Inverse folding.
C-alpha cells in the first residue's frame, strides 16, 4: 500500500490524515473524509466499514 493513499477509500491521505477508530491504538492513518465518516457512524450508532471491505487493506 502506498504511504500517501488512504487504505479505507484509496484516495490521497492529504496533509491532515485522521486516525482510524477501528483499532485500539488508532495507529491506522486514513484521510480526513474517511475519519469524518467513521466519527459520524460512531455518533449515530452505525457499524463501521469493516477492514476487509477497505479497497487497500
Amino acid at each position: 500500500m502506498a504511504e500517501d493513499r488512504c487504505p479505507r477509500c484509496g484516495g490521497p491521505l492529504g496533509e491532515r490524515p485522521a486516525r482510524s477508530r477501528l483499532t485500539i491504538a488508532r495507529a491506522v492513518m486514513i484521510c480526513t473524509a474517511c475519519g469524518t465518516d467513521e466519527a459520524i457512524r460512531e455518533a449515530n450508532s452505525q457499524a463501521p466499514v469493516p477492514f476487509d471491505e477497505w479497497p487497500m487493506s
